[in-house]
Structure formats: structure tokens, C-alpha cells
Design a protein that fits this description.
elongated; six-stranded mixed beta sheet; 66% helix; alpha/beta; Rossmann fold
Length: 585
């Protein structure tokens, strides 16, 4: 029981924290906020004047008949009040829209900025689709709820206060009846709203799961079709969709109870006011016009409750979405490198001293790995899948920090260097290519924006990419989509050209020519040889024929370097490298 109470208390604190954070974002726009409140006051004041004027018109007709001389002045005042209410409501909506759009823009920007500060571990362990859903879909849902909340709550709260004050002053007895019955409406709305929160949470989480699955299926559509896995994917999607449908129906059903429940109680209030007011008219306490005013105020008093009860549904969903975005924003960032030194004057001296690392604490990967690389050396890393080749690259680039030992560049522990300066001194070509949405020119100059067109074209020619680029519709100004309408080999050539343009002091080539045909690979190998001259190079290779001329070959097994030497030296040992080279299991 204590655990349940503690869980409820924590959940309540989270909700409060979410609300406070939203209000902090809203507080960044005091002019729009003050404008919204001011125009809400004017809207409500003008709206509350209209029933008084209608009551005066009814009394005028009851006492004097239809006297147009008296009525036209009243109708003129009604028209002015309605016009002021309409104008101020439009201005209030303008302010509310500005607040909503700016707040969501700021939250979405903070979330996207956070992505750049998150460690690679987060990206590796969280669904990309769910992360996209938080930044895009959840932010949109939150925006809708926030806008509706501002629009309804300001005017609703002021209308309730204004009408209850009038009713209490005009007729204390009927006013007290309204005040005493009102809490029943609030209780019902709160009860239903509290029970819908879990369903909205389930709905939002399932929608994120669905987005993630759809993103994965679309990204790997070729593989899905190649293995005839369409039916299985469709079944999986249907299963997720069914859960989303169930969660959505539950959330919609329970939240839809709020409005009719509060409407019933509010109509009951209206009926009581009409009944008691009618007796007062008969008793001479009220005039007919006075009862008209009172009934109109009773209707205006109950209307905000109906609107707010409907808004609660949207707000619950908006708060769940906001909480999911804040969860992303609150994720632990990479350790700060403020105050770290900038890596400059790099020759390519790299050392690994008793390095230990594992992605999961219970599963050891690299243990006590030591390695010394002198400037200009060409180091090849080979081994079976899971031996730690790519992990070693991640440690060199400081995508992950070591659990033990140290990785040093120019005698400096990489943890004491700024990540930016470290990575600027590496050129990296991976087996998996990446091109951004933009022109060929923008993709090639990504690492060196100030490069001249002559330098860019020279790099493209060295990578044997210039010929197919010129055949494109707009040459170097051709816009590439996500991945572009290019073959894998062409994309890889662009990535190679990008590195050849930057000419960094250190290189990392992780199966950099895996998607290139043999003829082009032979041509580009000469360019690679020139590029690697005088540069420390780490080459991860699966085709061992490509690294036979390396200065040193590291053979990795289970995170350890089991053999080290040149190609001929390792073959003479007749050990693990020999088995790999000859294709033995």
C-alpha cells in the first residue's frame, strides 16, 4: 500500500513539474500573455453586459410596449458590446496562437538541440521512430492542447467569476444554490479526467511504437521485399494498430463521459434557477427582465464548465505529450568538455593504454588492450564479427568513453580534449554511407565549407566520382533526397571524395570500398594510397586482400589483439590470421 501511495505521489510530482515547465516556457512571452489576459477580460466584460441590456429591453417592452424610441438606443448599445466582444476575442486568439506557436517552437528546438548533445549510447538503444514521434507528433499534439487551453480557460474562468458575482449580488438565495450545486460538476469532471490519464499515456506510447515500426519498415523496405516478409510486417503493424485502436477508444470513451456528465449537472443548475426565479417573479422580487438577465447569466455560468470539461480531455493528452518531450530533454547528456584543451598540431601519434570497454556491464568486450601507433603508420584491423573492430573505432573517435585505461592522441587523453577538435582531425569513411538532403556540392563540402570549387572537383576526380556527377541533371548543384537516387557505390564514392577534400591528419576507413565494383576499387586504391601517405590510418577490412600492404595488422578476438605484425609475418605464424586469410572456420 505504501508503494502505491509513493507511486501516486511521484506521478503527481511529475505532473506538477510538467505544468511548471510549460509555464516557464509561456513566461518567455509576457507581452502576448498580458495581451491575452487583457483581451479576455474585455471579451468577458462585453459579453456580460449584453444580458443586462437584453433584460432592460424586456422590462421596457413589459412596461411600455414596443417603444422603438427607447429600444433603439438599447439595441445600439447591444451592437457595440457584441462588436467589442468579437474584436477582443479575435485579438485574444491572435495572442494565444502566438504563445502556442512560440512555446512549441522553443520546446521542439530544445528537444532537437538535445539530440546533438546526447551520447551515442542513447541513439543506439532507443528507437529512432519513437524519438522522431516525440519531437514531431507529440509536439503537434501538445500545441493543439495548449492553444485550446489558453483560449477556453482564460475566458471561462473570468466568465464564471463575473456571473457568480452578479448572481450573488442580485439574488443571494439563488446565487448560493448555484454555488452549492457547482462543485458536483467539478467533482465529476475531475474524477473522469483522472481516470483518462493512463489511457492517454498508453495511446501516446503506442503511437510512438507504431511510428518507430513504420519508420523501420520503410527504411528497410528492400530487405523486407527481398525476404518476402511483407505479410509478417503487416501482421505486426496490425497488432500494434489494434493496441493503438484499443487505447484510443478507451481514452476517447472515458474522456467523452466528462462533457455529458457536466452538462447534466449544469442543466440541473439552469432548471433550479428558472424555477426559483419564476417564484420570485410571482412574488414580486424579480421583474421579468430581471429573470431574463438571471437565466442568461445562469446559462453563461454553466457554459464555461461544459467547454472546460471538453478541454480537459485535450489538456490531459497534451500533458502526456509534453511529459514525453521533457523526458527526451532531460536525458543525460555527454560529459561536458568545457575547459578541455583543443587538439592542434596533430602528427598522428595514437596510443591505447590498457583499454577496457563494454556496452553492457555484465558482458565484457574489450579488456586490457594496449597499442602504440606512430605517425604515418597504416594499421589494419581484422577479425570475426563481434571481435571489437568497430568498437575500437568508436573509442578512437570518442563516440564512447572507455571504462578503463586511456586512449591518447599526441600524448593527450582524449577525455581531456574537446570532442570537436578530436573529430576534426579524423577523416572517416564507413561501410554505411550517409548523405544529407542537399546538393552534391553541399555534401562534398560538409567537412570543409570554405573549400573552392577547384579543390572540390579535384577531390571528386581523385575519388572517381566526377564523371557520374557531371552526368547528373545539374551536376554539382543536383539536389539529393534522403540517400538520393544513387547506387550504394556512387554514394560511397561521394563519401570518399568528401574525405579527400578535407585531407585530415588521421584516417578511419571501415570497409570504405565495400559497395564499389572491383574495377573502380582498383582505380581508387591509388588515390587512397596517396591520401594515406604520411597520415595515420586505421583500416577495418573484411576483404583481407585489401590490407596486405599495411604497416601493421591487428587480429582481434573477443576484444583482445591476439596477433600483430605484417602480412608475411602473420602468415608465417600460421595462427588466427592465417585462418582468416585462407577462409578457414
Amino acid at each position: 500500500m505504501k508503494n502505491v501511495k509513493r507511486s501516486t505521489r511521484v506521478q503527481s510530482q511529475k505532473k506538477e513539474s510538467t505544468l511548471k515547465r510549460i509555464l516557464r516556457y509561456v513566461g518567455r512571452y509576457p507581452v502576448s500573455l498580458c495581451g491575452s489576459i487583457l483581451f479576455a477580460v474585455i471579451t468577458v466584460a462585453a459579453t456580460l453586459v449584453v444580458p443586462v441590456l437584453f433584460g432592460d429591453a424586456v422590462d421596457c417592452i413589459v412596461e411600455s410596449g414596443i417603444a422603438w424610441e427607447n429600444l433603439k438606443f438599447i439595441f445600439l448599445k447591444i451592437g457595440v458590446a457584441v462588436g467589442i466582444a468579437a474584436l477582443s476575442q479575435w485579438l485574444m486568439s491572435l495572442c494565444n496562437n502566438r504563445i502556442s506557436c512560440n512555446v512549441v517552437r522553443d520546446i521542439r528546438k530544445d528537444a532537437f538541440d538535445k539530440l546533438g548533445a546526447l551520447p551515442l549510447k542513447y541513439i543506439d538503444t532507443h528507437s529512432h521512430g519513437d524519438t522522431v514521434s516525440r519531437v514531431v507528433a507529440d509536439a503537434d499534439q501538445f500545441s493543439d492542447g495548449l492553444l485550446l487551453g489558453f483560449t477556453q480557460f482564460f475566458t471561462g474562468a473570468l466568465t464564471i467569476l463575473g456571473t457568480i458575482a452578479f448572481m450573488l449580488v442580485t439574488n443571494l438565495k439563488i446565487g448560493l444554490v448555484v454555488v452549492l450545486v457547482t462543485p458536483a460538476s467539478l467533482f465529476v469532471a475531475r474524477f473522469v479526467a483522472n481516470h483518462t490519464h493512463k489511457y492517454f499515456k498508453e495511446q501516446t506510447e503506442t503511437r510512438g511504437e507504431q511510428t518507430a515500426f513504420a519508420e523501420e519498415a520503410i527504411g528497410g523496405l528492400k530487405t523486407v521485399q527481398a525476404f518476402a516478409h511483407e505479410d509478417e510486417n503487416a501482421e505486426k503493424f496490425d497488432e500494434i494498430n489494434a493496441r493503438l485502436e484499443k487505447a484510443t477508444m478507451n481514452a476517447t470513451f472515458y474522456s467523452s463521459l466528462t462533457n455529458p456528465s457536466t452538462r447534466f449537472i449544469n442543466n440541473l443548475v439552469y432548471a433550479l434557477v428558472a424555477l426559483l426565479g419564476a417564484f420570485d417573479v410571482i412574488g414580486g422580487v424579480f421583474t421579468v427582465g430581471g429573470l431574463t438577465k438571471f437565466l442568461s447569466y445562469a446559462n453563461q455560468y454553466t457554459k464555461p464548465f461544459n467547454e472546460i470539461s471538453g478541454v480537459i480531455t485535450e489538456l490531459k493528452s497534451a500533458f502526456v505529450c509534453a511529459a514525453r518531450i521533457f523526458e527526451l530533454i532531460d536525458e543525460e547528456e555527454e560529459t561536458s568538455d568545457d575547459g578541455n584543451i583543443r587538439l592542434e598540431g596533430v602528427d598522428g601519434d595514437v596510443q591505447l593504454e590498457n583499454v577496457s570497454f563494454s556496452y553492457v556491464e555484465t558482458k565484457k568486450l574489450i579488456e586490457n588492450l594496449s597499442l602504440t601507433v606512430t605517425p604515418g603508420q597504416r594499421i589494419a584491423i581484422v577479425g570475426r564479427t563481434g571481435s571489437g573492430k568497430t568498437t575500437l573505432i568508436n573509442l578512437l573517435m570518442r563516440f564512447y568513453d572507455v571504462n578503463g585505461g586511456a586512449v591518447k592522441v599526441e600524448g593527450q587523453d582524449v577525455r581531456n580534449l574537446t570532442r570537436r577538435s578530436l573529430r576534426e582531425n579524423y577523416g572517416m569513411v564507413l561501410q554505411e554511407t550517409w548523405l544529407k538532403n542537399g546538393t552534391v556540392r553541399e555534401n562534398l563540402k560538409m567537412g570543409k565549407p570554405d573549400a573552392t570549387d577547384e579543390e572540390m572537383i579535384a577531390a571528386a576526380k581523385a575519388a572517381h566520382a566526377h564523371s557520374f556527377i557531371k552526368r547528373m541533371e545539374k551536376g554539382y548543384d543536383t539536389v539529393l533526397g534522403e540517400g538520393g537516387a544513387l547506387s550504394e557505390g556512387q554514394k560511397q564514392l561521394l563519401c570518399i571524395a568528401r574525405i579527400m577534400l578535407t585531407k585530415p591528419p588521421m584516417l578511419i576507413l571501415d570497409e570504405a570500398t565495400s559497395s564499389i565494383d572491383t574495377r573502380t576499387e582498383l582505380k581508387i586504391s591509388d588515390a587512397f594510397q596517396k591520401l594515406m601517405e604520411g597520415r595515420t590510418s586505421f583500416v577495418v577490412a573484411h576483404r583481407l586482400s585489401t590490407i596486405v600492404h599495411s604497416d601493421c595488422i591487428l587480429v582481434m578476438q573477443n576484444g583482445h589483439v591476439v596477433e600483430q605484425g605484417t602480412h608475411s609475418e602473420l602468415l608465417a605464424l600460421g595462427g588466427a590470421y592465417t585462418e582468416l586469410y585462407r577462409g578457414l572456420d
